[in-house]
Specification:
The complex is a heterodimer of chains A (309) and B (268). By secondary structure, chain A is mainly α. Chain A is built from 14 helices and two strands. In chain A, a hairpin with a 3-residue loop joins β1 and β2. The longest helix of chain A has 42 residues. Chain B is mostly helical and 268 residues long. In chain B, 75% of the residues lie in helices and 0% in strands. In chain B, α2 packs across α12 and α4 crosses α9. Classes of the chains: A mainly alpha (309), B mainly alpha (268).
Chain lengths: 309, 268
C-alpha cells in the first residue's frame, strides 16, 4: 500500500521501515476501535456485571447490601411477578402483531404506490421520532377520553362489546384498560416496524411482480409467493425492533393504563426507584433480559434470515 | 358501471396504508390543536376555548425551558461524542480484518437487542455501587452509550456500499492518506454519518427510560413532561411538541431536497 503512494521512480525503501509501517498499519483498526469499545465495556458490560452482583446481594438500605450469593431472589422475584411478566409478553406480542398488520400496508404503499408522494410519506413516518413521544402518548389520553368521540364510535359499532368479551376493555371506557395500553404501544413502535419493512420492500425488483403476473398468478398469490417472502428480512427486524422495546416499556402502562395493567417494566422501575429493593429489581431485569434473548434467538432461528444486522 | 366493491378491493392497500398514517398522525394533530386550548384545570386533556396565550409565552412555565435547554445540550454532546466514536468503529469494522471482529460486532449489536430498561437498570447499579452522583454527567454517559450502536449501524451501511476504487484512485493520484480521507472518504461517508448523528440526536433528546433511571434530581425535557403527567400538564408542553414536529418535518424535507439535488447534479 505504501508503495503505491510513493512515486514509481523513487528508490526502493529499505527493509526495516516497511516492517515498522506494516505493524503500525496493523494496529490502525485497534486504535479506531479503542475509545468506542472502551466506552461500551465500561458503561455497558461492566454495569451488567454490577447488576449481576447486585442481584445476588442481601441486606437492607439502612445496613447496606452484601453479596451473599442468594440466588433465591430470582425464584422469589419470578414467582411473585410472573403475572406481570406474562402480561408484558402478551401486550408486547399483541402490539407487535398489530404493528405488522397496520405497518405492512403503509410500508407497501410507500414502496410501490406512492410515486412522487413517497418522500412526504416517509417524512410523516420519521417525524414522530423527533417529537417527544411522551407528549404524543399523553395525547392519547385526550383521544381515548371517556365519552369522547372515539370511544363513542367504538361503542356504537359494537367494537367495545367484542373487546370487553376478550377482556381488553371494561364497560364503555377505554382509558385505563389493556386496550389503551396496547393501543399506545402499537402507536409508539409503529415507525420501528414500518422503516425496516419499507427498506426491504423497496429493494424488491418490481419486474418480479410482472413476471408472476405473466405466469397467471393472481395479485393475492403474487403477494403470498413473491412479495411477502422477499420482505422477510424487514418483517424479522421490524418485529424485533418492536417486540424488544415494547416488552420492557413502562411508559404506556403508566400513562394509559391502571394498576391492573402494570407491565414488568413498571415493577422494575418502582423496585429500583421507589421501593429501593435493588436485589429484586436487578433479578427481575435479568429475568426479563433472559426471556427476551431466548425468545429472540428462537425466533431468529425459525424465521431463518441471515442478513439481520 | 364499476362495482364499488371492486374499487374498494383494488385500493385496499392504499386505504389501509392511509388509515395507518392517520393513526400515526392523529396524536400530533391533537397536540397541535390543544396547544391553542385554554384549559380550566391543571390538566390539558379536555377542550375548553381557543387561546393564543401559550404561544405568546412558551417559556411561561417554571423550569420547562430550562429542562428543554438541558435536553438540547445533552443531545448535542452525546451526538458529537457518539458520532465520533461510532464512525471510527464503523470504519474499523468495514475496512479492516482483525481478530475479535465477531466479538466487536456482537458487542455493538447487544445494546440494540436488549430492552432499554435492562440497560437503564444496570447503569444505575454501576453508578450506585461506585457511589457516583447522578446528574448531568451520568445522563450524558448513558446517552453516548446507547447512541453509539445506532451510529455504527448507520455509518457501516454507508461505508459498506462505498466503492473502494475511489480511494485507490485518489492514492494513485498521489493523495496522501490524510488527504484521501478528508477529500474522498469523508465526503462519500458523510450521508451515513449525518444519518447516524441525526438519529442519535433524536434518540438522546427524546430518551426517557434510561434518563429516568440515571438522572437523579436533574430534569430533562422528557422528565419534565413525565412529571407534568402527574402534577398537571401546562399548555406550553403542546406548544413545544408542535414546534418540534414542524421543525423536524422541515429539517427532514430540507435534507431530502439537498439529497435529490445532489443526485440530479451527478452525471449519469
Amino acid at each position: 500500500m505504501t508503495a503505491t503512494a510513493a512515486p514509481p521512480q523513487a528508490p526502493a525503501p529499505t527493509e526495516p521501515p516497511v516492517h515498522k509501517a506494516s505493524l503500525r498499519k496493523r494496529l490502525i483498526p485497534y486504535w479506531l476501535l479503542l475509545p468506542g469499545i472502551l466506552w461500551l465495556v465500561v458503561f455497558f458490560v461492566l454495569p451488567m456485571v454490577y447488576q449481576a452482583s447486585t442481584s445476588v446481594q442481601t441486606g437492607s438500605l439502612e445496613e447496606g447490601f452484601k453479596v451473599t450469593w442468594h440466588f433465591g431472589t430470582y425464584w422469589d422475584a419470578f414467582t411473585e411477578y410472573y403475572p406481570q411478566f406474562l402480561r408484558s409478553l402478551l401486550y408486547a406480542g399483541t402490539a407487535t402483531a398489530l404493528c405488522l398488520l397496520l405497518g405492512y400496508p403503509l410500508a407497501y404503499l410507500i414502496a410501490f404506490k406512492a410515486g412522487r408522494w413517497r418522500n412526504l410519506l416517509l417524512v410523516l413516518v420519521i417525524a414522530p421520532f423527533f417529537t417527544s413521544f411522551l407528549i404524543r402518548t399523553l395525547a392519547w389520553k385526550t383521544i381515548l377520553a371517556d365519552g369522547g368521540p372515539v370511544v363513542d364510535v367504538l361503542n356504537n359499532v359494537g367494537f367495545l362489546d367484542v373487546t370487553s368479551w376478550l377482556g381488553m376493555t371494561e364497560g364503555d371506557r377505554v382509558l385505563a384498560t389493556p386496550l389503551a395500553v396496547v393501543c399506545g404501544l402499537t402507536y409508539n413502535f409503529l415507525p420501528f416496524m414500518i422503516l425496516p419493512l419499507y427498506s426491504s420492500l423497496e429493494r424488491i425488483d418490481t419486474r418480479l411482480h410482472e413476471a408472476a403476473g405473466d405466469l397467471y398468478a393472481r395479485p393475492a398469490t403474487v403477494f403470498r409467493k413473491v412479495t411477502f417472502p422477499l420482505s422477510m428480512p424487514g418483517v424479522v427486524s421490524g418485529t424485533l425492533l418492536t417486540f424488544i422495546p415494547a416488552s420492557g416499556d413502562y411508559v404506556n402502562a403508566e400513562l394509559l393504563g391502571s394498576t391492573d395493567t402494570r407491565m414488568i417494566g413498571n415493577v422494575i422501575q418502582s423496585q429500583y426507584l421507589r421501593i429501593l429493593d435493588y436485589p429484586t429489581a436487578a433479578a427481575l431485569s435479568f429475568i426479563l433480559m433472559a426471556i427476551v434473548l431466548i425468545m429472540v434467538t428462537i425466533y431468529i432461528r425459525r424465521a431463518g434470515t441471515e442478513d439481520l444486522v | 358501471m364499476r362495482n364499488p366493491l371492486t374499487w374498494l378491493r383494488r385500493n385496499l392497500v392504499v386505504i389501509a396504508g392511509l388509515g395507518t398514517l392517520a393513526y400515526m398522525i392523529l396524536p400530533n394533530v391533537v397536540v397541535t390543536v390543544f396547544s391553542f386550548n385554554n384549559p380550566t384545570g391543571r390538566f390539558n386533556y379536555a377542550w375548553q376555548e381557543f387561546s393564543l396565550d401559550a404561544w405568546k409565552d412558551p417559556c411561561g412555565v417554571a423550569d420547562m425551558c430550562g429542562s428543554l435547554s438541558l435536553s438540547l445540550q445533552i443531545a448535542l454532546w452525546s451526538t458529537l461524542v457518539a458520532t465520533a466514536l461510532g464512525t471510527a468503529i464503523a470504519f474499523a469494522l468495514v475496512r479492516y480484518r482483525f481478530r475479535a471482529r465477531g466479538a466487536v460486532n456482537s458487542l455493538i449489536f447487544l445494546p440494540m437487542a436488549m430492552p432499554e430498561i435492562v440497560m437503564a437498570a444496570s447503569l444505575l447499579a454501576l453508578f450506585l455501587n461506585m457511589g457516583i452522583q447522578l446528574g448531568f454527567w451520568t445522563i450524558l454517559i448513558a446517552h453516548i452509550m446507547f447512541c453509539l450502536s445506532f451510529v455504527v449501524a448507520a455509518v457501516k451501511a454507508r461505508v459498506l456500499s462505498m466503492d473502494p476504487r475511489l480511494e485507490e484512485a485518489a492514492r494513485d493520484l498521489y493523495a496522501g492518506p490524510v488527504q484521501t480521507f478528508v477529500r474522498v472518504t469523508l465526503p462519500i461517508a458523510a450521508p451515513g454519518i449525518a444519518a447516524g448523528a441525526l438519529l442519535s440526536f433524536a434518540l438522546s433528546f427524546d430518551d426517557f427510560i434510561i434518563t429516568n433511571f440515571n438522572s437523579g434530581n436533574t430534569v430533562t425535557f422528557p422528565m419534565f413532561v413525565w412529571g407534568s403527567a402527574q402534577r398537571g400538564t401546562p399548555v406550553q408542553i403542546n406548544v413545544i411538541g408542535t414546534a418540534m414536529f414542524v421543525i423536524a418535518v422541515l429539517v427532514v424535507l430540507a435534507g431530502q431536497m439537498i439529497g435529490n439535488r445532489r443526485k440530479k447534479a451527478q452525471p449519469k
